[in-house]
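Hi R.,

Here are the chain sequences for the assembly we discussed:
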Amino acid sequence: MSPDVINFLARGAMFIAGLAVAAALYRIIQGPTVADRVAGADLLSSSIMAIAILAGIVLQTHAYVDVVMAMAILGFFATVAFAKYILGGRPIDH
Amino acid sequence: MQALIIDWIVVAGLVIGSFFLAVSAIGTLRMPDVYGRLHAITKASTLGLAGLLAASAVFHGAAGRGFVAEAVAMWFVLMTNPVGGHMIARSAYLVGVRMWEDSVLDELGRAGEHAEMGHDID
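And here is the predicted structure of the full complex:
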């Protein structure tokens, strides 16, 4: 059962992650407030990380995990910077 | 036998991860205000990513390609994603984004009043 089932499930999960990307883009475009758009960007980065993980499983390569780590760090810093930007403050408080 | 157990762990991680990603996508579309959407986005997508990373760690680890990078990435996601969600929610609250009108509890007073006082709550 092993390779076929895992491959099928990984492709299905990739489709679901694509739907999450669509939902995040809808929220970025539609969202009534700036916080909605920032939350949509957060979901967008999480979904793209999920797609990278699943691509690593489908293609049976370990290279995409580094992409996932870099995107996790960049997405967190982007979220924090946007949250500070909403408040109108500087990124680093003293 | 061992390969079968590893396959089932991978399948369970994939199913759990994609389920929580689907929950996150639906909640993003369906929730009524920013705070509800942040619940859906941060919690559900964190759990979904953790499940997918666990599946990837077991899959690649069983194939001899290493699993340390997945463990580090999972630790980082579990640490930082809720922090980011809380920062967005705090900024939205201090700027004065209104809650849904059927919300039952606002422990800091009405959202929006603190913005006029110069956002002094920490």
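Chain A has one domain: 2-87. Chain A touches chain B through 52 residues (CB under 8 Å).

Let me know if anything looks off.

Best,
T.
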